[in-house]
Amino acid sequence: MTRPSLVLLPGLLNTRRVFEHQAGALQDIAEVAIPELWHHETIADMAEAVLATAPPTFALGGFSMGGYVAFELLRRAPERIERLALIDTQAAPDSPETRTRRQAFIEQTKLGRFHGVHPTLLPQIIHPSRLKDSAVVQPILEMAQEIGGDGFVREQRAILGRPDSRPLLVEIDVPTVVMVGRQDLATPLPRAQEMAADIANAQLVVLEECGHVSPLERPAEVTAGLRRWMRQ
């Protein structure tokens, strides 16, 4: 019997390595593909690149920025998406403060001040208990260095240009799981609750003692949640 296809979309400053645990652990039930998005200029370009390489129909999971791309895929080709996982992401646009912060990051990077994810930023993206956990911290730092300043600017501009996806939520009719770290500061729990409430066939999974980067912080729990969802 052929295994269903599962496409997992990484977040800002993430390579496919962010889903390393999930890809390995789900091989028995799915053909897992992880497109890297940081080569593209807009969310629309990212979505078109995914559609060009994905099978005719597939399960779709998006982490953080990958969730923004997942919404674009739903706008462009809903008939190809069999089920949906939204992981530490949001349908709402950025607040004015967040937009200003993104613009500042872009300007600093253009001045040659990109140093990857600075350790002082880690408390904003991972749970305090994981700040000295090399299995979480090292991949975050190394993925950012691999993507570099140009990739970072492309991704930030793409995120700034994304549409509001909240009107789309009521149209989603495939089995959906919404996962979020309880202590996620970047895309907080209320945003996940809003998405789960507006999607007809959605389950909310809250990961305890977990910040924004749940695939690395809580790999086994994220994998288990995806396994249940794939078997729904």
Largest sheet composition: 6 strands, parallel
Task: Kindly state the number of beta strands.
Answer: 6
CATH superfamily of the domain at 5-91 and 157-231, by name, is Alpha/Beta hydrolase fold, catalytic domain
Helices and strands, in N-to-C order?
EHEHEHEHHHEHEHH
Determine the CATH topology of the domain at 5-91 and 157-231.
Answer: Rossmann fold
**Can you identify the CATH class of the domain at 5-91 and 157-231?**
Alpha Beta
Query: If helices are DSSP runs of H or I spanning 4 or more residues, what is the number of helices?
Result: 9
Mean pLDDT: 96
Low-confidence stretches: none
CATH architecture of the domain at 5-91 and 157-231: 3-Layer(aba) Sandwich
Secondary-structure-based class equals alpha/beta
Indicate the proportion of strand residues.
5-15%
Distance between the termini: 18 Å
Main sheet strand line-up: 2-1-3-4-5-6
Helix content: 40-55%
Shape by Cα distribution? globular
Using only C-alpha atoms, the radius of gyration works out to: 16 Å
Question: How is this structure best described in words?
Answer:
Helix 7 links the parallel strand 5 and strand 6. The chain starts with a strand and ends with a helix. Helix 2 (43-53) crosses helix 3 (65-76) and helix 4 (96-110) crosses helix 6. The chain has a 6-stranded parallel β-sheet, with helices on both faces. The chain has a domain at 5-91 and 157-231: Alpha/Beta hydrolase fold, catalytic domain (Rossmann fold, 3-Layer(aba) Sandwich), CATH 3.40.50.1820. The protein is of the alpha/beta class. It is built from 9 helices and 6 strands, in the order E-H-E-H-E-H-E-H-H-H-E-H-E-H-H. The radius of gyration is 16 Å and the shape is globular. Helices cover 44% and strands 14% of the residues.
